[in-house]
Amino acid sequence: MSVIVFAGAAQFAAVGYVASGLPWPGIILLTFLLNARHLLYSAALAPWLRSVPFTRRVVMAHVLTDEAFALTISHFRRLGQRDEWGYWVAAIAVTFIPWNLATMAGVAIGAQIPDPARLGIDIIFPAAMVGLAVGLITGRRELVAAIVGAGIAVAVALVSSPSVGIVAGGVVGPLVGLLVPRAVAHETAPLGTAASAEHYSMPGIHVEPDGSVDPPEGSDR
């Protein structure tokens, strides 16, 4: 499953749903909602990967995870350009291979661990997500989105389930972050401006002499 599906949290959720006897339409719907955030990940990476051949982008989509996205988007922005090898390192070497090795180790020796919770193993995954999220916070809007999203996720998880809480926090948090006024956000390079094009060196963006931003000639945007 980790090789063919490779969906992180959705794998944990799906296994739990199967074990509880949930009908398969419900499993498909809930795991789809849980992984819907990948649509946003893909949209954020799309401008950087526009010139990559379609077949390679299909493979890149298969190995796209929370960790791969966070490491890649930060790397691209730091360089100011696409680094396809950087994506493969983040997706394969940092995520796919260790994940599958750990899966095999868990299958082989996991049953010999009487109480994994006593070792603190259950905190590794959320701790990793917190670390990745901190690296993506570049302003007050992101900070508000992270705090509200985490609060909503925990609250909903306590009265419903962790899967529903993740979806609720992932939707509500960013929406609240968008409500933060620009004057309060203190953005130094708001998206869509000449400053953001210069700051992030976004591919496909051309800064005119008057400071306006337009796609270059022949662009599909």
Descriptive notes:
The chain is globular and about 55 Å long. It has a two-stranded antiparallel ribbon with strand order 1-2. Strand 1 (206-207) and strand 2 form a beta hairpin. The chain has a domain at 137-203. By secondary structure, the protein is mainly alpha-helical. Helix 5 packs antiparallel against helix 6 (84-109). The protein starts with 8 loop residues before the first helix and ends in a 7-residue tail after the last strand. It has helices at 9-20, 24-34, 37-45, 54-62, 66-79, 84-109, 124-136, 140-159, 162-178, 182-185, 194-200; strands at residues 206-207, 213-214. The chain has eleven helices and two strands.
Summarize it.
With 221 residues, the chain is mostly helical. The chain contains eleven helices and two strands; from the N terminus they run αααααααααααββ. Helix 5 runs parallel beside helix 7 (124-136) and helix 8 (140-159) packs antiparallel against helix 9 (162-178).
Furnish the topology, listing elements before pairings.
Elements: H1 9-20, H2 24-34, H3 37-45, H4 54-62, H5 66-79, H6 84-109, H7 124-136, H8 140-159, H9 162-178, H10 182-185, H11 194-200, E1 206-207, E2 213-214
Antiparallel strand pairs: 1-2
Helix pairs in contact: 1-2, 2-9, 5-6, 5-7, 8-9
Class from secondary-structure proportions: mainly alpha
Could you give the distance between the termini?
A: 37 Å
Count of individual beta strands: 2
Beta-strand share of residues:
under 5%
What's the order of the H and E elements?
A: HHHHHHHHHHHEE
* Average pLDDT score: 81
Could you give a short account of the major beta sheet? Answer: 2 strands, antiparallel
- Number of separate helices: 11
| Low-pLDDT residue intervals, each spanning 5 or more residues | 209-213, 215-221
The 3D shape can be described as: globular
Cα radius of gyration in angstroms = 20 Å
Strand order of the largest sheet: 1-2
Oligomer: single chain
Q: State the share of residues found in helices, binned by percent.
A: 55-70%
